Amino acid sequence: MSGVGRPEPAPVEADGLTVGIVAARWHEKITDQLVARAVQAAKDCGATPVVVRVAGSLEIPVIAQALARRHDAVVALGAVIRGKTAHFDYVCDSVTAGLTRIALDESTPVGNGVLTCDSLHQAIDRSGLPGSHEDKGYEATVAALETAVLLRALTP
In the Enzyme Commission scheme, what number(s) does this protein have (predicted)? Predict the structure, then answer.
């Protein structure tokens, strides 16, 4: 597990902010937990979460862009697990590039909680389920809200 050196997510004061959470339906056990933890993080920070579900990870960027136009921050959640074809690489590259572009084009923070894993076990271990080592839904939400608060402070 390569989480060495990562900071522990601590809730920020994001009272009055809204966060759009878009999550893929693939690997529901994992994505449902990512969503639950993202919603909890938003509430811990005082923000209002709005959750939207999409078919798969490739559909996340277009909905994330729509959410970025209406909310203070966006969180993208999903689980892409490597198979035996290059499809994994195409999906991961497309989603990551799309989310980065949205954040820059819309000036809205996008927390990337789309898990890109070599196995189902790795995805479960990052999902925030009991016994897992990481909590990517929570972490991505706190990061997006922290960035939204910082952007507000930097905006004249």
Answer: 2.5.1.78
